[in-house]
Design a protein that fits this description.
Layout lengths: L8 E4 L7 H8 L4 E4 L2 H5 L2 H6 L10 E2 L8 H13 L4 E6 L1 H13 L26 E5 L11 E5 L5 E5 L7 E4 L9 H20 L5 H23 L4 H17 L6 H12 L5 H16 L3 H5 L2 H9 L7 H11 L16 H10 L12 H10 L2
Parallel strand pairs: 1-8, 2-3, 2-4, 4-5, 5-8
Antiparallel strand pairs: 6-7
């Protein structure tokens, strides 16, 4: 049996930020806390978001979210939340502030260290409906965390673990492409390739979820057609809208599960939190696709050919090489060594990948040596 669950109310389109006061009221937030990062705040987006809130002068703000949020930052934000006697969270930014807000929402209503609620620790069943409500406002088009059931946090022991539960899905997502118009080209490219990775990996997952497959293919079509325009012409509103849609669609679909790209990138992010998740996914995709090409469900369902169709390619064999070419055209690295990752880290990366929750939903079971081979291909 599979569970197919779409539960977030999504407010999508230019100008949709205006519904924030109404959405806070709808989900029961009277005294919100806002979680973001320094980049978003310095860009003036915090003031833009709070502009129409009647309580804007009293909203506490945590803007110290790291690029890869960690357990220490969760504790720091939680202390502000409790001191302000808040009853919900507004997350503004990319996947990191949104993931951090989800983790704070869990600990606001549950006792114990955060690792107790990690999926690999059996924590999913410990998370209840008492979790504080979150309104998520993405300012990048990549992670889709605004509609996702997961929060990726680096624990005190160095593991990057997923907190997974339907109870941490934001109660409201406000996806206003206007907020992405100022996103720098490099970040547009890296987060955009993250959306591409989500659409591809969830489509290749062997689990049965036809709605997710359809959403993923359409999201990939939109991302592939618009990522270069969004990167080279930041003010292109059509490109920005389609990239934000692709990002949200990728995350709506990945309730079906991801795969080895993410098990490897999660492991790498735990080893070196400075590595950008979307860039890692872009680098890893071709090697993982090549490994998965002979998976039973991939072959029997013609999945690579269907991906090729969404990307405007002639055959499934072109998918991996086309991704590498696109990554290079966007100005992103195509080798891990370009990001400072050396072969000496392979054993540690593999160890983390084998323990990651995404490892279990790859269409082809990967051994330690399989993972090492994939890493060597893109080293």
């Amino acid at each position: 049996m599979v569970v197919i669950n779409y539960i977030t109310q999504i407010n999508f389109g230019f100008g949709s930020l205006s519904v924030l006061p109404r959405e806070c009221e709808r989900v029961g937030i009277k005294w919100p806390m806002l979680i973001t990062d320094r980049g978003v705040r310095s860009a003036g987006l915090v003031d833009t978001v709070l502009r129409d809130l009647p309580t804007r002068q009293s909203v506490p703000v945590y803007d110290e979210t790291p690029g890869n949020p960690n357990e220490a930052s969760v504790r720091a934000a939680l202390a502000i939340y409790r001191e302000g006697e808040c009853d919900g969270l507004i997350a503004v930014g990319g996947g990191s502030p949104i993931d951090l807000a989800k983790a704070v929402a869990v600990l606001a209503a549950h006792d114990g260290p955060l690792k107790n609620y990690a999926a690999v620790e059996g924590g999913a069943t410990r998370i209840t409906a008492a979790t504080a409500p979150v309104v998520a406002i993405p300012t990048t088009a990549g992670t889709g965390s605004e509609v996702g059931r997961g929060s990726l946090i680096i624990m005190d022991d160095g593991r990057k673990l997923g907190i997974l539960s339907p109870h941490i899905v934001p109660k409201s997502a406000i996806c206003d492409p206007e907020l992405t118009l100022g996103l720098p080209p490099a970040l547009t490219a890296a987060t955009g390739m993250d959306a591409v990775a989500h659409c591809i990996e969830t489509f290749l997952s062997p689990l049965f979820n036809p709605p997710a497959d359809g959403i993923a293919l359409d999201g990939l079509r939109r991302a592939w057609a618009h990522i270069e325009r969004a990167t080279s012409t930041p003010e292109d509103r059509e490109a920005r809208l389609n990239m934000m849609s692709a990002s949200t669609q990728g995350a709506l679909a990945f309730q079906k599960g991801l795969g080895s790209v993410h098990s490897l990138s999660h492991s790498l992010g735990g080893i070196n939190p400075k590595l950008h998740h979307g860039t890692l996914n872009a680098i890893l995709l071709p090697a993982v696709i090549a490994f998965n090409a002979q998976a039973e469900t991939v072959v029997s369902e013609g999945k690579l050919q269907r991906l090729a169709g969404a990307m405007g390619l002639s055959s499934g064999e072109e998918v991996g090489p086309a991704i590498e070419t696109m990554t290079r055209r966007l100005g992103l690295p195509t080798r891990l060594s370009e990001m400072g990752v050396g072969a000496e880290l392979i054993p540690d990366i593999v160890k983390g990948a084998l323990a990651d929750h995404s490892h279990k939903t790859n269409p082809r079971e990967a051994s330690a040596e399989d993972y090492a081979d994939m890493l060597r291909r893109v080293m």
